[in-house]
Amino acid sequence: MTTLIRNLEILTLDAEGRRLECADLVVEGGRITHLGEAPATLRADEVIDGTGRVALPGLFNSHCHASMTFERGVAEDMAFPEWLPAVWKIENVLSADDVYWGAALATIEMIKTGCVGFNDMYFHMDRVADAVRESGMKAALGETVFDPGQGSAVGDALGKALTWNAGMAAESHPRLRVYLAPHSPYTCSQPLLEEVVTAAHDTGRGIHTHLSEDQRQVDQSLERYGMTPVQHLESIGAFEVPGGLVAAHTLVVDERDLEILEERRVRVPHCPITYAKLAMPMFSLAPFFERSVTVGLATDGPASNADMDLFAVMRQTALLQKYLSLDPGAVPGDTLLRMATSVGAEIAGFPESGRIEVGAPADLILVRTDVAHMTPRHDLVANLVHSAKGADVTDAMVDGQWLMRNRELVTLDEEKIVAEAQARAEALVERAR
């Protein structure tokens, strides 16, 4: 299948940051084969007029819990310490089918707001994998584990996670990656964390976890281990596993923590809408950037964020970082776009994605620029970060296959999924009462 898109504006987000105007983009065999002007001899199966659109790499959500769409709006106006057990009460009665339909609902929302891939940790991840396969998206998935000795009834045993992990390795699906996913140091005992580290070495996998989300967790770690959460994971070798470690949030850190994050090349998904909604203290990202710590952008789960729109996350990050640092130049637009594309793709295990260049996978989106809130266009990057909405995305493609054309989903039955999700979510909340 050869697709030719003409008359496009293209923001490549490649190493040179090239921007092309009135250009052609050709996709063959799932990859980008030409940019600029298509060969005169090209015989395309599909020719599309891209007038009034800008092409950019598809967005990658670097940390989320997709199936938490079912808990959207059920634990409102709570601080984090109260919010967490309220959500866990509902998750205690989740079924595998609930997880599937919640994930299917999330894939609709992500595709329609320009996201082509995501990094997810949750329960019944075999069913999330089903939703990913059907949607056409890319994803890294981790079966979340807790230590029952910590008093939590939520989650699955490590043995089940490893069995699923082995099955995924045998399948070797080109659009799926796998992490080991201990929930966090504060919900996992040291013996469990050490087992996870051993398993990561045995399987060649990386680890995806929550880390150092608030001062309470840091104080608990200091009391229990005499170390911060970051230093605790360092002490058991968690940052040395073959696939690296993704440390969602990592909000409360000291200088030694930052040194470790830099030295061990830890990747940190940042979820500012969750932090603002739950009134969690957050800080300037400047120390992370100064140490070249990899920071991606993420929505977190819809129970805390309320949506999965990465365009909203980009703008929120820009505004909050300017305010927190009292520096209007904090985190410029080009950096934010890369955090939402190539950095997110790297975190999810798809390092070839996240840029538009010849030879790269055709994971891309088209965004309307011929609308009032994107006019005038003195600065395209500024408009994409501060003016664009997820609903401005008209088309989305992964590996050369359309997931959405002209705002219509190609791979999913939106009406059926929305109706099923509504009914199941209502039943889930009723069971949890």
Coarse morphology: globular
Radius of gyration: 21 Å
What is the first-to-last residue Cα distance? 51 Å
Uncertain stretches: 151-155
Sheet having the most strands: 9 strands, mixed
Q: State the helix count.
A: 16
Helix content bin: 25-40%
Based on the structure, what is the oligomeric state of the protein chains? Answer: single chain
Structural category = alpha/beta
Attribute tags:
alpha/beta, 17 strands, globular, 23% strand, single chain
Question: What would you note in describing this structure?
Answer:
- There is one protein chain.
- This protein has about 425 residues and is an alpha/beta fold.
- It has 16 helices and 17 strands.
- Strands 1, 2, 3, 4, 5, 14, 15, 16 and 17 form a nine-stranded mixed sheet that branches.
- α2 runs parallel beside α3.
- The longest helix is centred in the last third of the chain and has 19 residues.
- The protein is globular.
- About 0% of the residues have low confidence.
Short description:
The chain has 433 residues and is α/β, with parallel strands linked by helices. Helix content is 38%, strand content 23%. Strands 1, 2, 3, 4, 5, 14, 15, 16 and 17 form a 9-stranded mixed β-sheet that branches.
